Amino acid sequence: MTTEQSESTGQAPPGSGLPDTAEMVRANEANWDARTPVHAASAFYGLDGSRHAEDWFAPFEWADLGELAGRDVLHLQCHLGTETAAFADRGARAVGLDFSAEAVAQARRLAERTGRDVEFVRSDVYRARQALGDRRFDVVYTGKGAVCYLPDLAAWARTVAALLRPGGTFYLVEFHPLLNALGPTPPADPDAPPLLLRHDYLAGRGALRSDTPTTYTDGPPLAGATTSYEWRHGIGEVVTAVVGAGLAVRTLRETEVLPWPRFASMVPDGSGWWRLPGTEPILPMLYALKAVKE
């Protein structure tokens, strides 16, 4: 999970009061640099050994990805490299890429401490081809809080396609746009449903600005750089970008589970992940897209 830069600077919609895209991305980079030490020390990530690399994967991910031993796997927007480590544990030649200098430094320290042979490269997604040279991969993986930081999905998808070998697999596991659109009902309204649509599902209003002194893990407030920006992308927009880059979609899953309890009403699902209780509607929390470069 990290933030990325578009190939073009872009301009915010007129009257939005937002800076241009390049300025928003710079703010995101500073924000993720500030989050990294908090995340590295948090119980949420459990880098002290209290959590395992595979805790971040749903069982269906391994079924979709297949055998990874001996394969070249690139993890885009890898943040601390928690998922990247799981690929190495399964015998892949794993490379993680992230544009946050603090995150890459922390990921390298973690790999060294745990004895994993994982390479980490500092670059934003849109410049990954330049950063990686002529290297190509059997699998490109990304997700769980990554796509919302991409201002230009078409350029992102073209980059992914260029990084794959013929026959290679792109695998995205991401928070469902509906999950991002839901918000808890204020306690002052006890008769309303526990969750309501409170945010946009689709793109169209430009970036969403957030200014908060805390991050999504436990730990102290951020030491500055509290502003960040996110872009909404519906599933249709994601699929269209991937297909437009020449990749063939093989699987599109939607699932009602999350690796942590996003909402207070969520309950354990029996496999270490979380879902809404049976008294509430079954709603998609994550989606997974598998595509192949033919």
Provide the CATH superfamily.
Answer: Vaccinia Virus protein VP39
**Tally of DSSP β-strands:** 13
Spatial extent as radius of gyration: 19 Å
Distance between the terminal alpha carbons, to the nearest Å? 28 Å
Question: Number of helical runs?
Answer: 8
Q: Please tell me the CATH architecture by its name.
A: 3-Layer(aba) Sandwich
| Low-confidence parts | 1-14
Helix content: 25-40%
> For this entry, what is the oligomeric state of its chains?
single chain
The SSE string, one letter per element, is HHEHEHEHEHEHEEEEHEEEE
**Principal-axis shape:** globular
Mean pLDDT: 88
Largest sheet: 7 strands, mixed
Query: Biggest sheet: strands side by side, in what order?
Result: 3-2-1-4-5-13-10
CATH class: Alpha Beta
CATH topology (level 3) name: Rossmann fold
What topology does this entry show?
Blueprint: H1 21-40, H2 59-65, E1 72-76, H3 82-89, E2 93-98, H4 101-114, E3 119-122, H5 128-132, E4 137-143, H6 153-163, E5 164-175, H7 177-181, E6 182-184, E7 195-197, E8 208-211, E9 227-230, H8 235-244, E10 248-255, E11 267-268, E12 274-275, E13 286-292
Parallel strand pairs: 1-2, 1-4, 2-3, 4-5
Antiparallel strand pairs: 5-13, 6-7, 8-9, 10-13, 11-12
